[in-house]
Amino acid sequence: MSEGTLPASTPPAPNVMGRRWAKISSRLVPLFAVITALIVSMLFIMFTELLTQGHVDVNQVLNTTGTAYNGLLEGSVGVTISNTLSADNLALAKVYAAEAQDLNPRGLTIAARLTDEVRVIGVENAIRYGAVLDKFPDLSDEEIVVLGGAIPEITTFGEENLLSMRTLLEGLGELDRSDANDLVEKFATEESLTAEGHEEIETAVPATVSLSDEELLAQLKTINTNGFVKMQRWLSQVDILTEQGLTTASAEAQDLAAIGKLDVAKVRTWVSAAENLQKLGINDLGALAEQLRIVKVLYDKGLLVDQDPNTALTNELESVIQNNYVILRPNNQMLFDPKPALIGSILRENKTPDDPSDDNKIDAVYLKLGDKALLFYPGTLESMIVRSIPFVIAGLAVALGFKAGLFNIGAEGQLYAGGILTAWVGFSPLFADLPVALHIGLCIIAGIVGGMLWGAIPGLLKAYTGAHEVINTIMLNFIAINLVDWLIKSTNPIILLDPTASVPRTPYIPPAFRLPTFAQISPVWFVAAGVFTLIFGLWQRRDALRENPMFIIRPIISGILVFVAGLALAWLTVNGQLHIGLVLMVGAVWFTEWFLDRTTPGFELRTVGANPDAARYAGMNVQWNVVMAMALSGALAGLAGGIEIAGVHFNMTPGFFGGVGFDAIAVALLARNNPRNMIAAGLLWGALMSGGGLMQTRAEISIDLVKIIQALIIMFIAADAIIRFLWRVPEASAEEKERTLFAAKGWGG
């Protein structure tokens, strides 16, 4: 090796690695912001545990976080990992069934519910309650409830105070009840007791002769306040406790008070169950209850036959496991495949045999991973994609305004303007005779026009009066929302209201005029799309093909990918939700990028956004570009609204969009105003919105955690210096800052 030559294994020089990291990491800032937000949100889970538990268990926090994010992942993209059924999964159920008397398949549900109840109350508590009840064998359940209910009252009043009044209470008890009440009421209001009054009381209750005037009057006032009958009952309850050597402050009496708040008959059942579980040595009651429910499901599916669960688990379980692939899911929503394979699919169970629409629909796809299964629910991903479409397109609308130096906060109102026009064109009899394709196209065009007109208003005001677009778009949001509200709710005259509906809404768009789903599209159209992509690619590369025929490969691959993507989307449409609005979304992304980067008007628009003075000096019409930017921004938002009406909900209701336009601002910032990045940003936003419900259910945490994650993402995107510091990302270059220009100038007027 010559002098100065580095060995082959020597790593690149630090400056080379730094340049590579600088080139890659700047593009990953949004991804780093998302990851950081997910990590920081753990602090909120930790803070919640501190408030509820009084301490922080790090392992518990990590477990809760993992469960939450697993639920978020499953609820958004439909991917999760689950255990599969084995004999060990039912070990506790087998021990329980072996000792249970007269247990049958129907009784499994009862046993599981009883086990859960004992788990909640606690085995030791249940057994202790049984020992307390054994001290009072002569009391009925009703009397136990009365005794338990009196103990807190006696404790509050004071047992010693009550016993000190025994003489007066027992003496009054010998009188007629009305006479006793009259005597108490007569003297309870007196400030002091006269000799005549004391003599009258002693005549009626001779035992009070030993009490002083002050003691007697004070006790009469106390009896009058609390009630003579109630205090007599308290005294009798104290006597019952005393017979057992108890006081109201004793632990047994407090247990009795707790029992009094419950169903005593059920408590006796819990006691019996707890004693049995303790004898069997079963400590994990949650696992036992879950296993008992699994056995019940196996009976319901006909996989276990013998009516004695012990016999069935002993003789039939192994055969069931060998001949079926059983995937365990939360809440006993188990999946069964009678023809197991390394990679397999599970068909949806048709719960309505008369309706064959669910036949052969795939519920889940699995991959065997030893004793676990990697699951994919296509219907979940389908729903998430559908929910993400308006976020992507509305995000494009906001980003296009940003490129022109305008802060369009009016996407919400523009969504309403586009949506209401789409709904009207969709159900109006004026257009009922149009061909189906033309009618559907007209619905979408109506949405675009509605949004464009609503977006042009603040553009005109900005261009020709100098009115700030932020204020104008905010106000136009309220106008659009309330205008749509009035159009739908108006009854005199009826404008857009469906008078047959139970809630205010427009009539439904007829099924024939709705955006078709991919499942409704013939594969021939996918072939045609692939061929068109091939031909278009060949035409684009016609000059290069003359020099090198190998350039044909890319158009061929593109055509094949389009065809395969069409088939995949048709397969994914298991719930009949994924519509061709997805194609319109991709087209909107392509159009926005093409318009901004490849056209003269797009260049002028970006120039006006970067420096209006320089654009004016170069001869560009700044006013026209401001109007055009806001109109195009509104058109994209209107497209999003039209797609939602024509492809998802098929009617319009007041308050329909619920903040989609405002979320679009966050999506645009996350995508850093890059049209291509908008797809990933919109899908992420849709995933957070779609998976939040399952995350809340699985981890038992507030769904507001999703809002916290969203807020953290936006904060880290807006203050990207934090992310650059944490992830050692170099400072943004001037070119990068120009690409991510946001409407800073718009705030300045």
CATH topology of the largest domain, which one?
Answer: ABC transporter involved in vitamin B12 uptake, BtuC
Number of strands: 6
> What is the arithmetic mean of pLDDT?
88
Counted up, domains total 3
Structural class by sheet pairing and helices: mainly alpha
Strand order of the main beta sheet, please? 1-6-5-4
Low-confidence stretches are 742-749
The number of helical segments is 35
Task: Characterize the structure shown.
The structure is a single chain. This protein has about 750 residues and is mainly α. It folds into three domains: about 190 residues, no CATH class; about 300 residues, ABC transporter involved in vitamin B12 uptake, BtuC; about 55 residues, no CATH class. Helix content is about 65%, strand content about 5%. The protein has 35 helices and six strands. It has a four-stranded antiparallel β-sheet. A two-stranded antiparallel sheet has the order 2-3. The longest helix has 30 residues. The protein is elongated, with a radius of gyration of 37 Å. The two termini are about 65 Å apart. The C terminus is likely disordered.
